[in-house]
Hints:
This protein is of the alpha+beta class.
Amino acid sequence: MKKKLFTLTFFFIIFFKPVNSVENIIYQKIDLFGEVLEKINKEYVDEINQSESMDSAINGLLQSLDPYSAYMSPEVFNEMQTETSGEFGGLGIEVSMESGVVKVISPIDDTPASRAGIKAGDYIVKINDTQVQGKSLSEAVDLMRGPVGSGIELTVRRRGERKALTFNIIREIIQVKSVKTDLIEKTIGYIRLTSFNENSAEQIKKEIKKLEKDNEVISYILDLRNNPGGLLSQAIQISDFFLDDGEIVSTKSRKASENRKWFAKQGDLTNGKTLIVLINYGSASASEIVAGALKDHKRAIVLGENSFGKGSVQSIIPLKNKGAIRLTVAKYYLPSGKSISEVGVSPDIEISEQSDNFRIKTETDNQLKYAIKLLNG
Length: 377
């Protein structure tokens, strides 16, 4: 009888032992966070703003996921909505956070940052007299904002440079014109796309039709250098302009039911004319989708430098406090099935910038010169 009782007791201990559930652990961590905040508020050497501390904690949680997820306070969210309307004050750079330092994804064409010489891949280590290390991305961006006409000093670290570089820049109203076109040597249609905003595809469509109607265009150059990306829908439409069929891009998320694929419709606006796509380290996200799709389908020759490698989809999710979070919800995959996250799109022909004086579509633009020579050859 004792043996039987022991066996039943053992069975109960093994199979009915209370388990500390995931929910319980989370609640314990929340209690711990409250305790830490209370200790800081009572014991820290200086008085703190608890509201700002909470914002920093929320942002820290999001940025621990990846460099592109972040918290936007109501003020920052409102400013972001103003910026996407196409006109805003600032320096003209797209940035992310890497290893606690602000990293330039790309400078926008014809803005104070691009004219001053800021380049894709630069690390901003100091803003005026303030060290960036330890700041959140939103805090660093706030430091860079200021009245139009006011000056700012950026200290950056650049690959290949032993010493830090200093740039003095005057803030301006940034007007985003995403599409610029030109006719080169009477036969090459040049299309420069600086971002993927709401009207980019429609602008490109109009410009291609104008080039086709009024000129003897026999080839095209699509310039995506220093294009930090933008709307996925625009990347799909613009890729479709140069394709007759086939997959353009797919996204995979946590929920299999939300995985999606997009395909090209019949009808190449350029009638299959020779196409070169220019990319560099400042080409990110939507730019990489277009370049990758056209490369995978062998529709275009991709020329320049390896792209940035931002292969993830962010969704802006509004919050009850009128703020929002930018959250990574999926990853992009090219028609070949490859992810571009942290890898980027590699060019078919690698041509690096020749000098520090390099500027897009100027006499120092050796990449564009090579593309023109290739088309003429």
